[in-house]
Specification:
By secondary structure, the chain is of the alpha+beta class. The chain contains seven helices and 22 strands. A hairpin with a 3-residue loop joins strand 4 and strand 5.
Length: 320
């Protein structure tokens, strides 16, 4: 038998070509600070999020998320994509999961029962469509090639989702924020299964077609500054410039270091994730007041900032 020798350089080139991009193939994929399971969970990405691959050691991929966050993901949770594969995905008909909570893809268009489940999916997951709807079910393809059906009521075309990044988006953020009431705090979490404070605010805005930076201190640098507080007491007068949907940032009064973020609901209240998703008042003496919340500043996502943060402005999504 004739032996075939392949140089190491060719193997590296082939691996690089195959793994230029990746899409998570499970509903929620963990992103860690280092390529090991014991490393800190720094973020998460949901199924169908397009990732740029920075390195690949065979077991772990170092990836960059669409908002520029970097970390390591275990290879068996991802589907590797070449540039042509990504280009095809970008131009394919796609939907985003827009259900209130976790839902499922089934292997049968008429029998939505547990035994028929192919996978769970969460809000924000992007799926390719695989033909016209069959009754109440839409055929879809998963990033790893599996096929199934999802309820039409649980998805929205990606173009319609991306068009939500308008001046009404902050109001919509406030409207859907209570849907996660009681959800647990998970360090590094960014999904309805569990989130940290900035993961929660990022998810709420992402569902409106707006991609905020990952961490609270990064979110505190985008948008319009609408309030700065130093040592003065929090009163209704102080909060008057705020609108529902504004991002509120909390932290150390002396160093001005931002350590927490929440969403302003109006009437002096913030909805945020601290131990769990909950509502607190910012005004001393009011019901639900939490003295540990030291308000530093507030920012509003509007105008040029909203256009810059819109998912449709990120070429990797391929949304026109």
């Amino acid at each position: 038998m004739k032996k075939i020798f392949i140089s190491a350089a060719l193997l590296i080139a082939a691996a690089t070509a195959w793994g230029q991009y990746a899409l998570p193939k499970i509903s929620v994929t963990n992103v860690r600070s280092h390529p090991r399971h014991s490393a800190e969970l720094v973020s998460q990405v949901v199924m169908g999020t397009p990732l740029k691959v920075l390195s690949d050691d065979g077991s772990w991929l170092q990836v960059e998320t669409p908002e520029g966050y970097k970390g390591y993901v275990i290879t068996n949770t991802l589907s590797k994509f070449t540039q042509p594969m990504l280009t095809h995905w970008q131009s394919a008909p796609r939907v985003v999961v827009s259900s209130v909570d976790q839902t499922w893809v089934y292997d049968n268009p008429t029998e939505f029962t547990p035994v028929r489940r192919v996978t769970d999916v969460v809000p924000g997951v992007i799926l390719e469509t695989d033909g016209p709807a069959k009754g109440r079910a839409l055929p879809v393809s998963l990033p790893d090639g599996r096929k199934g059906y999802i309820a039409c009521a649980d998805v929205t075309p990606v173009e319609k989702w991306a068009s939500r990044a308008t001046s009404s988006a902050p109001d919509s953020v406030v409207a859907i924020a209570p849907s996660m009431m009681g959800a647990p705090y998970v360090w590094g979490g960014t999904s309805v299964k569990g989130a940290d404070c900035s993961g929660y605010s990022q998810l709420l805005y992402y569902r409106q077609g707006i991609l905020l930076p990952r961490d609270a201190w990064q979110q505190a640098q985008v948008g319009t500054l609408v309030l700065t507080r130093h040592s003065e007491p929090v009163t209704e007068k102080l909060l008057k410039p705020l609108r529902p949907g504004d991002l509120l940032f909390f932290g150390n009064a002396s160093t001005r270091k931002v350590t927490h973020v929440g969403i302003y609901r109006g009437n002096g209240e913030v909805i945020h994730c601290s131990s769990r998703v909950k509502v607190n008042s910012l005004i001393p003496g009011a019901k639900g007041y939490d003295k540990s919340l030291n308000l530093l500043l507030a920012r509003r996502i509007e105008g040029d900032a909203m256009e810059k943060l819109a998912v449709k402005s990120r070429a990797i999504y391929g949304i026109k």
